[in-house]
């Protein structure tokens, strides 16, 4: 917005100038003010009149999303429908019938199908519009409180009655009806919180602020805001759709101006939380609100199949023209032949002369086009739309795509690209939040160069991996477990109480409630117990306590921090930074979304200390009211004068503020001293007295993780207000930090900072938290001369080492740093910062600069490693998708090390495979590297191609080794930028194509989308992009199919996506099952459509040879027109919607089957033309059998045409029968319905009118035919004869050269139960998890007992013990004892063994004959237990457990697996995913034997 | 919070067979072994049908029983598009004799009177007379008794074609002209039988049912089974006396006269029987080859499933 910066300070300008600005600005004033002129000063009258005039054309709050009104429906809808070219074509054809010389049908009749199609579409639109209207009506009639001038109070009004300039009062949990400028809040700080879930899906609370500078002027004394006193004028932007921006200013009566920002605006659709009541003035209403401006409907894309289909439709048009042309020439010649003959059947023109050949040919051509128009399937588009809608419905309904945890299912946002899902070749995935959970878990940290590895914490996390987080609440914690109840392990009364209360809470809740609570927790904050509870590292904990003790004893002295050693001081600062350097809001779970407002003066047990502190450092914050007034304000507000005067000599800060002059926004603006006290009292009355369990609501999960980590070290964040943060510290009690500034996180700075005044030292500190790459560069350069500097250097290099280590472990790293500002430095910075804040023009830019100025010369405190855990089933999903022939690229903004590590964890990279890493510093280097890599790849390519050839036909065997042998490519963002240059992109692509997987690190959103675009355009491949965050939006939009993860990073990705899945793993089913089905269904349906129409038109065309090419049709025109629409449409729709060529379980077990879609095997040009040829053949048969049967008979043309129609119908249905792979009762019904409908309609039609329907005049034709045996014999013979070749060749092909799909089908039929078994267990996946809720120790005992009972002779109790002892004791060493394999050796053995693992199997089974008896003990997936059966190697057991015989044993074995250290789990147990294939091979082998 | 708990509804989709696409289904495998039996069945069925049809066609004794006399035209296109349009059903049903809207170009005569029956079909009506004589011996020629009614569909004669409601047929057609090609007006088509005159004349009705192909036959007369002819046409020599009115040489057409009987399976055409036989044979052949394949591949199957 180009606005003069001076405008903020100047008086209202001359009218002329204002008018000029009016185009870009909106001005709003109170509706409550009386009409201008009456008692107002003349000076103000002028602008107000103008404003009134301006206000008249502002939108009201009525929501109207309907497209049509009753009157406009028809024209508007028709206009929209004619945007589709096909409709225009069909109408054109229909209109051709009105030309007498060429008409083929009765004009009215010819219009019927077009009208029918148009009507169906129109009806659909109407229905949609009506449902929109109903929902609009509902929303419009919601109620809210609006201030009424007449009654001088808030009255209930409908939403639709709200107008711009109205004052609205909202209460807690109400939905905001319009975009409202916040004028008053019940919160003493002038704050309120809103939840924007409806808008962007983010469930954390966002803070909004009463208009700065306004509150003092209006409501300095009254506790309740009085709208009648509001006389200011608001100037703001025209309505726009930018949710993140709002600018404007408010002009008070006295001419003062104050800026308005995004923080002042409450957006429509959000929900008010945590705040009792707010009052605001409506700025934008109805369709001008940002929420509605952002609301764009579903997206329309055209799928690849549809493009191909359109191309084939063009071929059909060409064919139609050719046929018509052929016919026209034939007719011309025919006419010429008979022209001179004056034959009796010649129909002359009206003037008696015969038609000359050329015009006759032209007429014939046009008539033929009409007659053969069926070749272009009029109902194709409608049918496809119907089928797609149903497909979308079924995808949405799939219970296996439902995520219980988040209570969400898959969402299809794009309705018409379902079949693209079956053809994807490249998947581009984001990492964070997509492959990983985006649930941050604190893992380890380093402070002052010393690393704290948090081993116990790692073990705890390993346990969580096993037990589902939600079940945890039912479990009373065993004493042997390390304490994880936050501060529970420490002798603090408060903490003990806390854990007590939380436990009570857990015990009272039923399981269902516990689940709901956990769900609620999940929704409201990022704090599942897994993240909340951090087991502290004992060493560090000890240091923290020591630190606290030191400080507690030294706090009365001048510089308490100086008494700490540098290390302890760093530790102290480190935890302070973790606790306060964030924007976490503290709430209490008992009162959801109610901010805990603990007034420490009233309640804190350390009141005296606080008092002391206040005396020691007279901070105004300790006064609690946080009421700061400027001199000018103090003068105005008399009752506060005394208070303010005492405050005035508080410190340098205040004076500085005064120096900055009146009008400048104050550091902490708040005028609610009295109101604040009221509220505080109320709050304290409401608040639960014993320290409630606090809940942290953070904007990002990292923040929450760090705060929780700090809390585990007894540094608990207990309260955050607008300008202060309270922290509970060990031995020190509650400390309150005066929060001077919060410099929020942004992706350019990659860091955030808070500026606080330290209560102990009264120093001004800056705590910065950010990415290591950034923060490490901002550190204070330290000299190498003195010891201190050298020490610092050492610490830094150590920290850097640990950071690298963390990155290798796949942890997200953050550096924590601190800077101490002198008062002068701060004052200097503050001045510029305040200028930046008050600036109206490019405020963001200035603030950014200001932040950069502050965040320099930092002192490094330490670093944290946060684990972003892999989502469930990611490695398995990736393995399956790979098997399906999909190439997976990961594009991430993360560091290379982190990305590579995650890639290893999710099996994208194998440890033993080659990784090509491209890190180039310059364009030339990049080119050279690329060349080198290409040479290398080419040198090894011969063997690769040989390998891939050998796999050509082995669809039922384990995945080919050839695909696994390719190298992987890792490229960083910088090199990627070079590689994406025009001259290198081909090389890069060629290289990438050869690689098994590609990993792009440090890539920007733009690069992501460029990569996708490149692959899409250059490789002509189908691409799918999946991501969850705003940074993936561009990539999602560019890809053919965009998938959003409806996770925790807001809804932008989902909004931009075509499909939204709750978790990455659902992609497997979405693509491999639904994608395949959708593609195969639609491809087959489209082919069938083409076949059907060609075959039908063929019948008509062959007849032309017997009617002098005169374009007459033997099929009654009613049949001709309605055949496609009514008689033969339903069965194909049912098949198109329901047919499953291969069952889901086989598809999942054999992902290779997906390749058929990638290679377009079902619908490619060759199949299309074969299909057309078959159609031509069938039409020949169906024409000539009736022809020859009736040859030399006295049949008439339409009596002969009716059997042909019937034959065609039967042929279509039988053909569909051949093409349909699964016959459900719906298919049978549809086919029966078609036949019955045809005969019923024919009978009724032929009995309805004796003189109607020229020219066929079919009175009693069908009735007569049905008494004719010839009719039946034709109806039997012709379809059979027509379809025999197809059936025969299909059967031959299915026997001799079966496609993988056919093999899959055969397999499914031969062994249906064997595939169902794994699916059932996965469907009941939660049941085994419930079983796990039992205490691990107990369970192991009970299992041990059952084992000993069942096969006591073979397995002694003693051998069992080692395996379960780690469970009970929690000793890691015991685990090692139980597991014969170690980290390093295991993968190798796994890789080498699966092929020759069969021999030990029988031994194992023999060893325990009771194994079969153990079956009833059902449990989840089987897993090996080497210690029980001394079988060497894991893979043999894998094989063994694949036999259903030992599935019971599997459940016993399950356990030893759970006792594995957590970090081994991902990598070590993955080979289990190869199990189904192996399984399948075995099964297929068996089935063959049976066969 | 309690309320929230009640409001909470799971979005878990219904676990029904339809919604989960788990309907029990019959799966057809298109492999030799699976459809072998089907092929056999089809083949046998077709062969059986063929044999039945063949036998029934063979059972026809040429001129015994109900003998029908047909005239046959070659190269006469009654199925031309413009030709079949040129008629007025309203006129033919007797509702409005003057309704000639659809009869272009034969709507009105030169003097402006509406033509009855109008249109190209009616105008081109076959008007040869064919009389069959039985040469009992060299001197006695018996005119074979023929019925000229009931050659058309019942519904045509009694529903679709009606004379205008007048006592006197000629007055009913007053104010109309005869078609140009006709030698006499429509009410003189069969002056002997009022039930066969005017629009309801069987010859006329049969002609108006336009033939499907350029070569066609139309039923002309039925044998009146009396006297010598109760058992059909006795063996002997016959002669046709044909009054040639209908010119076909102009358009290189031909005319023929056919005497035939009918069976339940239509005319004496052997085509359907042969078609069934051929289809059956081919199907059986295919099924044998498939069986051979199946037997041969039975051992190989284990190979490619592993």
UniProtKB/TrEMBL annotation, chain A:
Q: What is its EC number?
A: 7.6.2.1
The yes or no answer to whether the keyword Nucleotide-binding is present is yes
Q: Which InterPro entries match?
A: ATPase_P-typ_cyto_dom_N, ATPase_P-typ_P_site, ATPase_P-typ_TM_dom_sf, ATPase_P-typ_transduc_dom_A_sf, HAD-like_sf, HAD_sf, P-type_ATPase_IV, P-type_ATPase_N
Q: How does it sit in the membrane?
A: Multi-pass membrane protein
Low complexity: bias regions: 1-11, 492-502, 1339-1353
Major subcellular location class: membrane
Q: Does the keyword Membrane apply?
A: yes
The protein's location, in the record's own words, is: Membrane
Gene3D superfamilies, per database record: Calcium-transporting ATPase, cytoplasmic domain N (3.40.1110.10), Calcium-transporting ATPase, cytoplasmic transduction domain A (2.70.150.10), Calcium-transporting ATPase, transmembrane domain (1.20.1110.10), HAD superfamily/HAD-like (3.40.50.1000)
Q: Where is this region: Disordered?
A: 1-56, 465-514, 1308-1421, 1464-1491
- Report which superkingdom the organism of origin falls in: Eukaryota
Query: What NCBIfam families does the annotation carry?
Result: ATPase-Plipid, ATPase_P-type
Name assigned to this protein: Phospholipid-transporting ATPase
Species name for this entry? Bos indicus
Q: Please state the gene responsible for encoding this protein.
A: ATP10A
UniProtKB/TrEMBL annotation, chain B:
Instruction: Give UniProt keywords alphabetically.
Output: Glycoprotein, Membrane, Transmembrane, Transmembrane helix
Major place of residence: membrane
| Keyword Transmembrane helix annotated | yes
Matches recorded under Pfam families = CDC50
Enumerate the subcellular locations listed in this protein's record, separating them with semicolons. Answer: Membrane
Q: Which domain of life is it from?
A: Eukaryota
InterPro entries assigned? CDC50/LEM3_fam (IPR005045)
Q: Does the keyword Coiled coil apply?
A: no
What residues form the membrane-spanning segments? 35-55, 266-293
Q: Give the family from UniProt.
A: Belongs to the CDC50/LEM3 family.
| Protein name according to UniProt | Cell cycle control protein
Q: Which organism is it from?
A: Bos indicus
Gene name, per UniProt, is LOC109565637
